[in-house]
Each structure stands twice: as structure tokens, then as C-alpha cells.
Amino acid sequence: MLLNFQTYESKPHHDWMVLFHGMGGNYSIFYKQIEEFRENYNLLCIDFPGHGDSPSFESSDYLTLTAEKVIELMDHLKIEAAHFLGVSLGTIVMQKISLTHSHRILSMVLAGAASRWLPWGEMLGKLTLSRPVRKLLPYMIPYTVFAFLLLPKKNHRKSRAIFIREACKLGRNDYHKWAFVGRDAYKTYDRIRRKTNRIPKLYISGSEDHMFLRGIRSHVKKEELADLKIIDNCGHVCNIEQPNAFNSMTIDFLEQLREGTRRKVQVI
Q: Among candidates 121, 115, 116, 46, which has minimal Cα distance to 79?
């Protein structure tokens, strides 16, 4: 069974771009990117398992399942390779695909990439996913708490509200499966660090993405062909909070790749 998807086809000779949403969302979170990006790219927008109009699956390993489902969909649409762009949870799925099907990826833009939680966030995540707490609490309680912890400021309100609203449609079982993917993201990054990266990657994070920014800074300094750009006065979901800056950084990155002028910048 295919994942739910929507395509926006520009011209046959244009590259494809695949869009990966975050936890609890669906491809509609890219409403501030689709119109601009479709001018120069064919777009494939995907709903992850249990999200949007995609079905749930029996598998307990949603990360591996989703990576394979994305490749299945690309095969179905006869997309040989594409640029990947994702937000938060979507970046973890992208990184998983980069380990198993790197030849299908032309480049990667990773917004609000979540490699490793701060220690207190990791500890809280493990607590809320422990068996007693999972059985005791409705899943939306820890999700809402984490939404406010990740996006605490007034300027984060819009993206926080969108993700809480959409997550209400997710369901307990799918929430828990995806929450384990987020909790264990560091395992995927540990595997990435043991390999030499050959895919051009641009990480974009908000200056106020306090839970993940430190870990991503550390990671990018050691990864080949990877750059990090930071958007001021912006939190975790930078494609919604600062769409103009996010879109501009993404387009500049892709144009530099096309023109062969991109070089690695200093990560501070």
C-alpha cells in the first residue's frame, strides 16, 4: 500500500524535490514553500504512516518502514533521484534513506534537524515513553508538553498550534511508534558519523531551537559536504516561522549546487 502523496509537476526536465513533514503534521505544513518551489522543481509531498491521509501499518519499526515506503513511491512515480527537504522528524527519515539508498538523493535540506536531545529532554522523553506512563497518560498530554518545551516563545505560537492541532488526528499507537523514532534519532546519526558523506547537505536551524541546535552544530562540524545556516529569532519549525529566510536559503543552496559554486562554510 502506497503512502498518501500529492505531486506538483512543473516541467519534465526539472529536478524532483521530495518534502518530508514533522511529527504530528502532514504535507500541508509546506504551504509557504510549495508555490515558490514548484516554479523550478517538480514536487512530491508525502504523508508519513499514520499522518494525514496515509494509513497506519503493523510494523513496529516505523523508521525503516517509512524509508522503504518513500523509495517504493519514488519507484511508482518513476523518480530516479530527487532533492530531499524535511523538517524535524522528516529529517530523521531522510538520514535513514541516505544510509540505505544514497544514490536516490541529489541533495538534502534539513530544517530543525534533531540529532540529539539535551540531556534533560532525553531523560523526560524516556520517562514519558516508559510503559507505566504510556498506559497511564493520554498520548496528547506528553505531546502537548513537548510542543511547549520545544516551541516555548510567543513567536513560536503559530507552528506550535499547527502541530498540536494536527497531532490530535495521529492516534495513540502511531504517536508512540513515531515518538520512539524521535527518541532514538541519535542512533541514526551515530551510523552516519561512521561513514563518509557524499550527499550535499544544508542544515537550517532557528537560533531559538534550544533543544537541538547544540547537537547539530557539533554534528555538522564533522560531516563532509555539510553546512549549517541559522535563522535569527526563530525556533524549531523554521519553515513556518521564518518562511522567507528559509526559502531563500534553500533556493540559494540548490542554485549553487546547479552552478557548481557551493563550498563548505565555517560552522560557528
A: 46
Q: pLDDT tens for residues 154-182?
A: 888 888 887 788 777 788 899 889 989 99
Q: Which three cell numbers stand for residue 102?
A: 544514497
Do 90 and 158 meet the contact criterion of CB atoms below 8 Å apart?
A: no
257 grid coordinates = 549546487
Tens of pLDDT, residues 103-157? 999 999 999 999 888 877 777 777 777 777 777 778 788 778 778 888 888 888 8
Q: What is the assigned CATH class of domain 5-259? A: alpha beta
Nearest-Å Rg of the Cα atoms of the chain is 17
Rounded-to-integer distance, Cα 172 and Cα 256, Å: 43
Rounded to the nearest 10°, the torsion over CA 110, 13, 69, 34 is 50
Q: How far apart are CA 114 and CA 181, in angstroms?
A: 11
The residue count for the chain: 268
Q: What is the pTM of this model?
A: 0.91
Domain ranges of the chain: 5-259
